[in-house]
Amino acid sequence: MNSPTSVIADESRLLQLHELECAYLRAQSAQREAQACADVEGEADAWLALSNAQIAISEIRAALASAKRAAELYCRLGDLPGQVRALTATAYTATLLRRNTEALETAFLGAKLNDQLPNGPSRVASYTYLGVSLLWTYNYARADQVLKAAIWLADELEEVKVAVHPRVNRACAEVLYQLARRAQKNQAPRVTRLAGLIEDYQRLVEPVPALAHEETDSLALVLADWCAALCAVWADDVDLAKTYAQRCGSRTAQLPKPTWHSAMALWARAEISWHEQDWPAAEAYIQDFVTQAEACENEQLVAQGYLVQNQIFAAQQKYDQAHRSLCWLRSRDLAVQREIVDHAEELAAIRLDLILNTHSSCVAGVEGRG
Predict the structure, then answer these.
(1) Could you tell me if residue 333 is inside a domain?
(2) Of 173, 199, 316, 356, which one's alpha carbon is 20 to 30 angstroms from that of 225?
């Protein structure tokens, strides 16, 4: 049987090589083998590896379940670093599924547990995903504060790769804040602060072009290009916006299977077409974006897509179609809420079993002493 360390190393190598299905099957096999041998440590590592592989093939709901199982096993082992990694994966996947309360609670727990460990990439990741979880609860100021802390922790490590993600996510947070202002207050997005955040990121990455050849970092670059495309089009620099949108799409064209990152170029092109008042293209791009985000199980992007679609229709005074977009959004909201209720019932059953087992053990202990 593979050691836990080799399972994780093999999976990481396969994902870097875009051997997604192979990574998934290896992790699945390792989990079954470890479970059959009652190897709890190996099973925990295999569940976490399986979660990462499921994220890569856009099975986000399955990835959330796998990450939570890994966290449970690491907790049983008293493996704090392992538990933190699993909680980070749980927070990330719960966020994508718009289970915002679960994501936020998990992200806070992961960050606080990580504070007990020496600073390292895992701690930076915990704070980054805490910031992202806060962002999707619309607490933009708090999200920015946490992402700044993640950047500070990353800079202490003096590793460019580690410092990439919190900076990109801070720029994404500003984009989403400006989108919320546009949707709620009908105000044009402001680009001054966003341009500064993008410049900060670009200063870090441009001297290290090799980052673009690694999958994890190239996906961060997809988001960076998306931010830059929206910033440019909002600043009326359409040619620059098209350059970034093209680059955004080119980065994901090499992936063996579409992920939610692959949809970001569609969103950028929808914004550009809206700016140019090319309404048929804007409508087509944003509909394709919603379809791909839904296929990749990213409920946050599905919701954002319907909001942008509503605004594109409203800008053309197509109010019936704009209303229909909001109805579709409401339908997605209800589906998400049903998933949350089902999860809460499942979690209550697990906790009830734990309480009853603990109670039985205590009673047996008392009777034994008697």
Answers:
(1) yes
(2) 316
Provide the domain limits for residue 21: 1-77
The per-residue pLDDT for range 186-232, each reduced to its tens digit, is 899 999 999 999 999 888 877 665 554 454 457 888 999 999 999 99
Tokens at 293, concatenated: 């985000």
Q: In this structure, what CATH number is given to the domain that contains residue 43?
A: 1.25.40
Tell me which residue has tokens 């379809």.
Answer: 291
**Reported pTM:** 0.87
> 54, 91 in Cβ contact below 8 A?
no
**Tally of CA atoms within 13 A in the half-sphere of 343 that contains its CB:** 19
- Domain count for the chain: 2
- List pLDDT tens digits, range 21-43: 788 888 888 888 988 998 899 99
Does residue 237 fall inside a structural domain? Answer: no
> Is residue 150 over pLDDT 60?
yes
Structure tokens that stand for 286 in this block: 């944003």
Name every residue whose Cβ is closer than 8 Å to that of residue 245 and which is 6 or more positions away in sequence: 225, 229, 265, 268, 269, 272
Distance CA 97, CA 123 (A): 23
